[in-house]
Write a structure and sequence with these properties.
Radius of gyration: 21 Å
Length: 453
């Protein structure tokens, strides 16, 4: 890839797990009562065809300095039981709002470190959730596993509960890189967890690999992917390190910015890694995600059913996603709501029988149209406005802004559609930004997003 394109388009930008993105939510007219009505109306409109459930388990025993997620660092496992009880209380509050027993089509345990919790506590959590819901046979259940502490007992119990997908955070196998990001994790630990999951019967095992980490070299990326190839995970998330040290509490201060691969060097890491993945039978299914052709995510992409939300890419396109736990975000399709990030406040609000929500956004008709376009681009690398339902007033200006990307060979634009080229896929965030009307109308005065390249 030409260095000039990287320098041209390497600007701060969102990852578009939602639209509008969180910094552009209109929170002024939002409150918990309005959110309860929105989620209730969406559930009725959806005719109980199924909801997704994201459960945030925030505890980690140590701080990894590459991580930008919300977490609570502690070695005190006595915190497990109170948190499980709080999650179940929050879930009961939601079930009281809904008009009937919900059908859960997908469950994802994220973190933090879900496997910080004992297998018994995870069992109590899932059984408690399902006691107030209906779980169909094909419910898609997944969790994020830390290879250093995901035991065979964890895997066996979660499998018995219905989990079939697991993703392990690998990041990089270089000891120098691991020391810099405070994540010492030998290949042996990843191999042990991966092989155990496969032996137990998990049908989709994923590995997360990051490029652009401090002190990371091209040889490091090649070595990591070669080791990964030997374990043959079904999916691989190969994504850019998001350097956002200004965000409170994320711990990204264990190294200097000068220790990070920059611009063209960083992109070479990606291009080389991507080529190796494709050579070994992996297909690009969305931004920074790759899968073997037999994996459900690849099949969903081929069938045009791939979906993206705050849980990442999934095969489940349910329009309602309820987030439980501190910092978790819920999505009714017509609105978003985020829980408090403060654990004490989370407990207190639930003690008062209140949903622990601190902010949210109700989508306007224009928001909904833009959301569909960005979702199309993120999941299918194309979008269309051939029907009146996806045309919007500012479209001519958006297409004018994309003219430069068309000239650079990143997109093809026809009368009623836009398609991202292979050369444009690494710049998908930039392409989506052209549709981001809220950002266009209110450019941030300070940097709030990671770089796009």
């Amino acid at each position: 890839m030409e260095n000039s394109l990287i320098q041209k388009y390497n600007v701060p930008g969102p990852r578009y797990t939602s639209y509008p993105t969180v910094p552009y939510w209109d929170c002024i007219d939002f409150d918990a009562q309005s959110w309860e009505q929105v989620i209730k109306n969406s559930f009725i409109k959806n005719d109980n065809k199924g909801i997704s459930l994201y459960i945030h388990l925030p505890f980690c025993e140590s701080m990894c300095t590459f991580c930008g997620c919300h977490k609570r660092i502690t070695k005190n496992h006595n915190m497990e039981t109170p948190y499980i009880k709080a999650l179940l209380k929050e879930w009961r509050l939601y079930c009281n709002i809904l008009s009937e027993k919900p059908i859960i089509t997908s469950i994802h345990l994220g973190g933090g470190t879900p496997t910080f919790f004992s297998s018994k506590n995870l069992e109590d959590l899932i059984n408690g959730i399902l006691s107030y819901a209906i779980k169909p046979i094909n419910c898609d259940m997944s969790f994020e596993g830390h290879p250093n502490n995901t035991t065979r007992e964890h895997l066996q119990k979660l499998f018995e509960l219905g989990f079939r997908r697991v993703s392990f955070g690998v990041q990089d196998y270089s000891l120098r890189v691991q020391e810099a990001i405070k994540r010492i994790q030998p290949f042996h630990n990843v191999a042990k967890a991966t092989l155990a999951a496969r032996e137990i019967g998990f049908t989709s095992i994923g590995h997360d690999i990051i490029f652009g980490l401090p002190f990371q070299t091209l040889d490091d990326v090649i070595d990591t992917i070669e080791k990964t190839k030997s374990l043959r995970p079904d999916t691989i998330a190969f994504y850019s390190y998001a350097h956002v040290p200004w965000l409170k509490g994320n711990g990204q201060r264990g190294f200097a910015e000068s220790d990070l691969p920059q611009d063209a060097t960083k992109r070479t890491l990606y291009e080389t890694g991507k080529k190796l993945l494709e050579t070994n039978g992996y297909f690009e299914i969305g931004m920074d995600h790759f899968a073997l052709p037999e994996d459900p995510l690849f099949k969903a992409m081929e069938q045009g059913l791939l979906h993206r939300n705050f849980m990442g890419y999934s095969t489940c396109d349910s329009t309602i996603m309820i987030g439980l736990g501190v910092s978790a975000i819920s999505d009714s399709w017509d609105g978003f709501a985020q829980n408090t990030k403060n654990l004490d406040d989370y407990y207190q609000m639930l003690e008062w029988n209140k949903l622990p929500i601190i902010k949210g956004h109700l989508l306007t008709p224009e928001d909904l149209i833009i959301r569909k376009h960005i979702l199309n681009l993120m999941c299918r690398f194309q979008t269309s406005w051939s029907g009146n339902d996806l045309y919007f007033e500012e479209l001519p200006q958006v297409l004018e802004e994309l003219r430069e990307m068309k000239k650079d060979g990143l997109v093809n634009i026809k009368t009623d559609r836009l398609t991202v080229t292979d050369a444009g896929k690494p710049f998908i965030r930039n392409i989506c930004m052209a549709f981001d009307l809220r950002m266009a109308k209110n450019q941030p005065e300070k940097r709030i997003f990671s770089l796009t390249v």
